[in-house]
């Protein structure tokens, strides 16, 4: 028998296992049921980032993961601590972000008895996790933690939750070794693209006159940027990207048409409706791109490369498929395709680019497109841009061109307001030497603004630009365009003085409301050594165009502000 | 009647799943169905031949496109070893029913005859009730149920369908 004193507690095992996984940072907030874990953390070299609200911890871990490719780790307590992570878990799930969450739980004999701060975390989170565990035995911790990290960051990544009853983390580990074999026979390893599928898909490209590549988050996750570029250049095919696919193909490349879809560029959407072949590389034909499947790329051959076979046939019925990660799929596919004769097609696209460019309207006053464009110039396109959700997000996607993967972080599938600022914090922790800019709206920022404390404590040089129009702008835009301008619940009267708010945390604040001050303020803010908040008071009633109304196909894109009333959209949100 | 044709007409699908024998697996699978508005008509769960796993067999009604998604999403669950739909041709389908009837002097022999016709048997008898056990295809169970209902049925319990692939292939 081993001496009881020499045995490790479950919490110590957890810390050792996290270190063995290469974790160097944890985001969290303690509470009764995780005190043993926080106690064990005292002895660890891993950095603990204490947040002000658990939702912030999840978005920080998310931003960290998207910016680095590593798994973000969250530690929170039971009950409300765990339920506060739900939005962040769902956000990570929707955008396939690797995350491991350790949630405290009441002691096992009290499970299901409405113990203090008990919530059925395992049950509540079940539909929004890739996988989850309720640990009942301290001795199983090493295996469970290895499995969790493996599952979170392989295949199609996603969040994995480990619910840890306090007697499991406080209990003693009597197992032989911390190296335990994983036991997940039902977890399908990453599929290798089938050669027959590759050859079949390659054949489809033959004779295509108007090909179009659509790159999405899958290309970012598998780091297929070089492969996408080589593939597009070999084919001489234009490329559009989804919101999350920004950077998977350089948006400054002559073959790039930028973002496609609801608020994509007009030329990208024109290419979408005129192509004769579309090949999705790691996108899921989301309804922001294809909100009317009956009119989606009519007559075009549809090819689909995806790591997740459940995405095949889910929205689009493809003519050829390859199941595998974007990188290995393209490495194979490129061997079997030849350069296509796309001269005419590229000319046609040049015409669209000239005829329907993105416009910055300088007539009405300080506007986000101009601010973002100035930011783009000043940072030479090299900043890590993290956005919140709404109008500013779409303007940022349009005007801040991304040339590199993992430099554009945005909540796509979930559309989580409050995501941007804490995600930028996580990104800055992951990449301390890079310039990180959070572009947020006045609405979303106030949902997680309390993390200003976290930024101040860690002296993180995050630059926060608040596009303040004193409205929930995207909803106001819909109400103006589709609901006779009957404004309802969108007026953000009561906004704080954002500069004073920043200053109260000891953070430098800037304010401007004139076009002519933009460059000066942004330059000063970017030079500022440390965190700063830039309060940009923008015109109140700017609208994002182009716009494809929800439920309509790209044929119905509105490029200019409409003069007549539009019918109410039929699509979802 | 060919059970496959019959099921296809009613849009009934039989899905067999081999899953890890762990807490929560059933809920995960039920979530996949419920989220897409698919009602599970029957569900049979029991330990598989290899006790590490459980075998689940469900029948559900709905359009084939949604079902394809459901099977794929179920297959994605870490605790699911595999899931597949089975039709009448590639597998045998069977279900068990217990029917409790109240009899009189005249109906007792009718019940006995009916049971015999359906290869069912009486497994319990009290002063005025019988419990009849019937094993067979869902269609045969439906048929006997319809006939029994003409008399005095007290209650009925059916297990739900189980399936097994024919030949050497595993279910």
Q: How many helices of chain B does DSSP assign? A: 5
Q: Count the strands of chain B?
A: 9
- CATH architecture group name of the largest domain in chain A: 3-Layer(aba) Sandwich
Helix content of chain B: 25-40%
Question: Alpha-carbon distance between the termini of chain B?
Answer: 23 Å
State mean pLDDT of chain A (0 to 100 scale): 96
CATH superfamily grouping of the largest domain in chain A: Thiamin diphosphate (ThDP)-binding fold, Pyr/PP domains
Number of domains of chain A: 3
The CATH C-level name of the largest domain in chain A is Alpha Beta
Strand content of chain A: 15-25%
CATH fold category name of the largest domain in chain B? Alpha-Beta Plaits
Structure, described:
The complex is a heterodimer of chains A (573) and B (171). With 573 residues, chain A is an alpha/beta fold. Chain A has three domains: 4-170, Thiamin diphosphate (ThDP)-binding fold, Pyr/PP domains (Rossmann fold, 3-Layer(aba) Sandwich), CATH 3.40.50; 195-355, 3-Layer(aba) Sandwich (Rossmann fold), CATH 3.40.50; 368-545, Thiamin diphosphate (ThDP)-binding fold, Pyr/PP domains (Rossmann fold). Helix content of chain A is 34%, strand content 15%. Chain A has helices at 10-20, 35-41, 54-68, 80-83, 86-94, 121-124, 141-152, 166-170, 195-205, 217-221, 225-235, 266-274, 326-333, 343-355, 368-378, 391-399, 420-430, 442-448, 452-457, 473-482, 498-504, 518-527; strands at residues 25-29, 47-50, 72-76, 99-105, 131-134, 159-165, 211-215, 239-241, 256-259, 277-281, 301-306, 320-323, 384-387, 408-409, 436-441, 463-468, 508-512, 532-537. Chain A has a six-stranded parallel β-sheet, sandwiched between helices. A six-stranded parallel β-sheet of chain A has the order 9-8-7-10-11-12, with helices on both faces. Chain A has a six-stranded parallel β-sheet with strand order 14-13-15-16-18-17, sandwiched between helices. In chain A, α16 links the parallel β13 and β14 (408-409). Chain A is globular and about 80 Å long. The model of chain A has no long low-confidence stretch (mean pLDDT 96). Chain B has 171 residues and is of the alpha+beta class. Chain B has two domains: 3-89, 2-Layer Sandwich (Alpha-Beta Plaits), CATH 3.30.70; 92-164, 2-Layer Sandwich (Alpha-Beta Plaits). In chain B, 32% of the residues lie in helices and 40% in strands. Chain B contains five helices and nine strands. Chain B has helices at 3-10, 25-35, 64-76, 107-117, 138-148, and strands at residues 12-20, 40-47, 53-61, 80-86, 91-102, 121-125, 129-136, 153-158, 162-165. In chain B, strands 5, 6, 7, 8 and 9 form a five-stranded antiparallel β-sheet that branches. In chain B, β2 and β3 (53-61) form a beta hairpin. The A-B interface holds A 122-123, 126-127, 130-132, 134, 151, 184-188, 308-310, 313-314 and B 19-20, 23-24, 27-28, 31, 35, 65, 68-69, 72-73, 75-82.
């Amino acid at each position: 028998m081993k001496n009881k004193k020499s045995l490790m507690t479950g919490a110590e095992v957890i810390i050792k296992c996290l270190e063995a996984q290469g974790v160097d940072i944890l985001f969290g907030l303690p509470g009764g049921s995780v005190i043993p874990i926080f106690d064990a953390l005292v002895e660890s070299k891993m950095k603990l980032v204490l947040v002000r609200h658990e939702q912030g911890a999840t978005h920080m871990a998310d931003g960290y993961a998207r910016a680095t490719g590593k798994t973000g780790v969250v530690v929170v307590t039971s009950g409300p601590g765990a339920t506060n992570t739900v939005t962040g878990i769902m956000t990570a799930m929707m955008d396939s972000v690797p995350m491991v969450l350790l949630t405290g739980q009441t002691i096992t004999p009290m499970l299901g008895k409405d113990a203090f701060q008990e919530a059925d975390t395992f049950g509540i989170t079940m539909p929004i996790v890739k996988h989850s565990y309720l640990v009942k035995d301290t001795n199983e911790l090493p295996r469970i933690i290895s499995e969790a990290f493996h599952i979170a960051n392989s295949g199609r990544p996603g969040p994995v939750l480990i619910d840890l009853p306090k007697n499991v983390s406080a209990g003693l580990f009597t197992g032989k070794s911390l190296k335990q074999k994983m036991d997940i026979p039902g977890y399908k390893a990453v599929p290798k693209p089938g050669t027959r599928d590759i050859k079949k898909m390659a054949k489809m490209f033959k004779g295509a006159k108007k090909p179009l590549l659509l790159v999405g988050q899958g290309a970012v996750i598998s780091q297929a940027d070089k492969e996408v570029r080589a593939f597009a250049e070999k084919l001489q095919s234009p490329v559009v990207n989804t919101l999350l696919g920004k950077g998977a193909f350089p948006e400054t490349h002559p073959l790039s048409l930028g973002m496609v879809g609801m608020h994509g560029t007009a030329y990208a959407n024109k290419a979408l409706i005129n192509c004769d072949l579309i090949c999705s590389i790691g996108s899921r034909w989301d309804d922001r791109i294809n909100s009317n499947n009956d009119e989606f790329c009519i007559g075009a051959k549809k090819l689909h490369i995806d790591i997740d076979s459940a995405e095949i046939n889910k929205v689009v019925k493809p003519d050829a498929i390859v199941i595998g990660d974007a990188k290995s799929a393209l490495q194979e596919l490129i061997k079997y395709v030849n350069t296509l004769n796309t001269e005419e097609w590229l000319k046609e696209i040049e015409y669209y680019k000239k005829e329907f460019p993105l416009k910055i309207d300088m007539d009405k006053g300080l506007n986000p497109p101009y601010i973002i464009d100035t930011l783009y110039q000043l940072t030479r396109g090299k900043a890590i841009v993290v956005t919140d959700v709404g109008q500013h997000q779409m303007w940022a996607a349009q005007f801040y061109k991304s040339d590199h993967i993992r430099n554009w972080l945005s909540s796509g599938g979930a559309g989580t307001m409050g995501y941007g600022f804490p995600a930028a914090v996580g990104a800055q922790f992951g990449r301390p030497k890079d310039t990180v800019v959070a572009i947020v709206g006045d609405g979303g920022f106030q949902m997680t603004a309390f993390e200003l404390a976290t930024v101040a404590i860690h002296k993180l040089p995050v630059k926060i630009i608040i596009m303040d129009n004193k409205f929930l702008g995207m909803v106001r835009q819909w109400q103006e365009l589709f609901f006779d301008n009957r404004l309802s619940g969108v007026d953000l009267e009561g906004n704080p003085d954002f500069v004073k708010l920043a200053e109260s945390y000891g953070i430098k604040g800037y304010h401007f409301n004139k076009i002519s001050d933009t460059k000066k303020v942004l330059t000063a803010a970017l030079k500022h050594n440390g965190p700063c908040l830039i309060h940009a008071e923008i015109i109140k009633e700017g609208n994002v165009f182009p716009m494809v109304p929800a439920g309509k196909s790209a044929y119905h894109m509105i490029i200019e502000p409409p003069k007549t009333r539009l019918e109410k959209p039929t699509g979802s949100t | 009647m060919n059970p496959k044709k019959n099921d296809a007409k009613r849009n009934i699908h039989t899905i067999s799943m081999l899953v890890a024998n762990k807490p929560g697996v059933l809920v995960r699978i039920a979530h996949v169905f419920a989220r897409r508005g698919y009602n599970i008509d029957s569900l049979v769960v029991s330990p598989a031949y290899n006790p590490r796993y459980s075998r689940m067999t469900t029948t559900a009604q709905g359009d084939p496109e949604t079902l394809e998604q459901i099977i794929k999403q179920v297959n994605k669950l870490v605790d699911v070893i595999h899931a597949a739909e089975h039709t009448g041709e590639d597998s045998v389908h069977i279900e068990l029913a217990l029917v409790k009837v109240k009899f009189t002097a005249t109906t007792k022999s009718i019940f006995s005859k009916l049971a015999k016709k359906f290869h069912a048997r009486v497994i319990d008898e009290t002063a005025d009730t019988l419990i009849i056990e019937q094993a067979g295809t869902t269609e045969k169970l439906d048929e006997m149920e319809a006939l029994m209902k003409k008399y005095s049925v007290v209650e009925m319990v059916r297990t739900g369908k189980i399936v097994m692939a024919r030949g050497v292939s595993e279910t």
